[in-house]
Amino acid sequence: MIPLKEIGECLITVGENEYFFRPSFANMTRIGEPQEVVQAFYDVHNDNATPLFKRAMEAYGRIPDWLVSHVSRPVFSKPTLMAAMAILQACCDQDLNRLTGEIVPGRSGKWAFVYRKGVMPEAEMVLLAQSLITHGIIGKAKVRQLQRHESSQGATEFNAFEYISAARNHLGMSRAEAEQLTMTEFALMLAQKFPDQKGFTREEYDQVADNYLARKARRLKKV
Questions:
Q1: What is the C-alpha separation between 169 and 175, in angstroms, rounded?
Q2: pTM recorded for the entire structure
Q3: Mean pLDDT over all residues of the chain?
Q4: Looking at residue 137, what DSSP letter applies?
Q5: How many helices (H) and strands (E) does the chain have?
Q6: Pick from 112, 116, 113: nearest CA to 100
Q7: What's the distance, CA 215 to chain centroid?
């Protein structure tokens, strides 16, 4: 299967195995409850090492070995790694233990756990998880987002079923089709369906407000 990177899909090949990832609405529900989805998004985006590796990926297109070897261990926090593993597994129908590693019971106590690494470097796991969940619950579509639609970005939970229902109602899709949409794909399809939405984006609103305040300040100076 050929991945459509524009809507968040990804394909990773390890030997003879191919792992296909799709951050669809249905797969977002596999991460956990609505609140847990948002927590997973927070966990993979809030780690001291993430910005460094992200800049390296943008510069080199990969994570250089010399960078990994010079960063102190552990690189990523336990919540970050666990969230990344959960996101990747939710977006793929295959068992990812070989790729991402696994959490297994330790020997030091009942609640002790050990992380057994997979073939995929931790930094790449986290960056891929960031991309998948962003395409899945926020979207990366380059469309005009009106200010009245921005309130959901500060939400404490992500209810995929609401977007599945919206896709069925506004786009005339079946439930099975709507469940396979990513948020990026959904936003692009809505923008094509309703191209002439009226209103201001946040940037447009701020510009109008700034212009108004500047004109008001000039008038007050003349008084």
A1: 10
A2: 0.75
A3: 80
A4: H
A5: 11, 4
A6: 116
A7: 41
